[in-house]
Amino acid sequence: MSTYRRINVIEEGGVSIVRFVDKKIVDSATIEQLGEELNSLVTVDKRNMLLLNFEGVEFMSSAALNKLISLNSKVKAAAGRLKLCCLRAEIKEVFTITRLDRVFDLRKTEEDALAAFKL
Amino acid sequence: MTSVDSSWTLDKILPSELDAGHAVIDQLMAALETAGWMGRDLFHVQMAIEEAVVNAIEHGNKRDASKQVHVIFHVFQDRAELSITDQGNGFDHHNIADPTEEERLEQPRGRGVMLIRELMSEAKYNEKGNSLWMLKRRSPDESEDGSSEG
Q: In whole angstroms, what is the distance from residue A66 CA to residue B111 CA?
C-alpha cells in the first residue's frame, strides 16, 4: 500500500474515494507529487474504480488538469472507471470550456457518483 | 470622483523561478480582493495569470536563470490589466492547435493559451509571442455588490 501526502483515500463499496489535501492545486512540486500519487493508485495499489471528490478544492491550474487526463488514461488501460464529483462551479466551467466534461464523468455529489458506479 | 479611479500597481522584474511567479500572483490576488473582486471573476483572473506566468517562466524563458520575466499589474475596481513579458524566443500564437478537437481532447497539454483567451475579456500577444497583455472587466453584478451608484 502506497503512502499518500497529497490525497486521502477511503474505500466504499469497491470504489476508492479520493479527497485532496490541498485547497489550491497550483504549486508545480505539489502537482507533480499529486500526479505520481494518483497514478500509483492504479499502477501500484491496483485500484481501478476511482472517485475524485473535489470538495474543498478552490483552485487548480491546467497543469493539474493534465495530471487528471493522464490518470484517466491509466484507469482506462486498467479497464477501470474514473468519476469526479463536487467540483465548485468555477472549476466545472474550466472543464466545460476545455470540453473535458466530455472526457470525464462529472457528478454533482458523492452520492450521485457512487450510485453511477453501480449502473 | 468615485473610488473606481483608485488602483493598485505592481511593476516587477522576476527571476525565472516559479516561486517568484507565485509570489506576485499572491500579491495580485490580494489586491483584487482588497478592491472587492470575488467569485467567478477572481477565479478567472487567477487561472489566466497562473497560466501566463508559468508559461513565461517554463516555456518562454525555459527556467534559464539568466533570463527574467517582467510583470506589470494594474488593478481597478472595475477592471484588471496585466502584462507579462519573458525573454524567450516567443511562439506562433496565430497557429495554436485547438485542444478541444476530438483527437487532441485527451492530450495532457496545450490548454493554457486557450484558457487565457476564454477567461479574460481581452488577451493579446505581441507579434513575437513573448509578451502578453490581458484585460479582465469585472462582471457588473459582482462589481456593484448591490450598492447604488447614485
A: 9
Domains of chain B: 8-144 (3.30.565.10)
Pick from A79-83, B69-73, B102-106, B134-138: least confident: B102-106
Taking Cα atoms as reference points, which of B28, B48, B18 lies closest to residue B121? B48
Cβ neighbour number for residue B141 with a 10 Å cutoff = 11
Residue of A nearest to B99 (CA): A98
| Contact with chain B for residue A73, Cβ under 8 A | yes
What distance in Å separates the CA atoms of residue A113 and residue A85, rounded to the nearest whole number?
7
- Model ipTM value: 0.90
pLDDT digits (tens, 9 = 90+) for B5-21: 569 999 999 999 999 99
- Residues in B closer than 8 angstroms to A72, CB to CB, are 106
Chain B: give the shortest CA distance to residue A4, in Å: 23
Choose the mutation target among A62, A65, A96 for the interface with B, i.e. most B CBs under 10 Å: A62
> Does the domain formed by A7-117 have CATH 3.30.750.24?
yes
Q: Nearest Cβ partner of A70 from B40, B108, B115?
A: B108
Nearest to A5 by CA among A26, A19, A15: A19
